[in-house]
Amino acid sequence: MITLVTDIIWPVTAGILLGLFFFGGLWLTIRHTINHPTAWLWFSLSFFLRIVISCAGIYLVTVPSPLRLLLCCGGFIVARLLLTKPRNQGKAYAFKS
Questions:
Q1: What crossing angle do the helices spanning 39-62 and 66-83 adopt, rounded to 10°?
Q2: Phi, psi angles (nearest 5°) of residue 65
Q3: Beta-carbon neighbour count of residue 29 at 10 Å?
Q4: What mean pLDDT value characterizes the chain?
Q5: Which residues have CB under 8 Å from 22's CB, separation 6+?
Q6: Cβ atoms 69, 62 nearer than 8 A
Q7: Cα–Cα distance between 95 and 69 in angstroms, integer?
């Protein structure tokens, strides 16, 4: 029998939080290292840490059940959609030099 909190709410919430961490970290990395002389190093370290922490979190949340894996990945995708939604529609993006 499926319990609401442990099998549905917890994996979705964990997926959203992991997604916010992953894509928020990506946004911070891009924002702060775009003009840095060793940007490649920061991007590489950030990518490695975000992947390791996100995969470990998904593994810890979803070990016993494929349903939890599906729900956690769904929450991860919801976080991606929330964070990558265009903020200024109709305006051109301009990067600072």
A1: 140
A2: -145, 130
A3: 18
A4: 86
A5: 50, 53, 54, 76, 79
A6: yes
A7: 38
